[in-house]
Amino acid sequence: MQASTAQPKSNGQTAGRASVVLFRCASAHNAVSANDLSGRGISIQEVLLPCAGRIQPEHLLKAVEKGADLVCVVTCGDGECTYLEGGLRLARRAQFVRGLLNEVGVGERLLVLQPDDASQPETIFANIQAAIDKAGLNPLRPGGVQGAEQ
User: Fold this and answer.
1) Domains identified in the chain and CATH numbers
2) I need a surface site. Which of 12, 52, 108, 124 has the fewest CB within 10 A?
3) Range 118-129 burial, b when 16+ CB lie within 10 A, else e
4) Beta bridge partners of residue 49, listed in sequence order
5) Beta bridge partners of 47
6) pLDDT digit string (tens) for 39-87?
7) CB-based burial of residue 83 (10 Å sphere; 0-12 exposed, 13-18 middle, 19+ buried)?
8) Residue 87 φ then ψ, to 5°
């Protein structure tokens, strides 16, 4: 998948709200969508993928570079991947990206993997909100908003 072909769906980003890029596996059985999470004070851009294992490090890094306060990947539950090894590929790539984020001083906390195991929108939203509260705002966010601890 080319990063430029993914067309995020957004519920409208405003300067005062946290911004989340939600990569979502289309094969996840109980997958939550941006519509399920809208109206909760967080701007969510959704990128639907055939498999979360198809995400390349540059997709995750580009979302952080563009100012996302959190990058969340909703994956199939353990052992539920239609493509068998998507979760394993994603875990290796996420570990690599977290290392890069730490190296540049942004912090690995901006990347969250959310398994779809019996996930309800409320549970995923609570996990996203907790991750944002912990991470703060992305220091690379447009407008120079500083909020993430170094």
Assistant:
1) 3-135 (3.40.50)
2) 12
3) ebeeeebbeebb
4) 25
5) 23
6) 677 888 989 999 988 999 999 999 999 999 999 998 887 777 878 888 8
7) middle
8) -65, -35
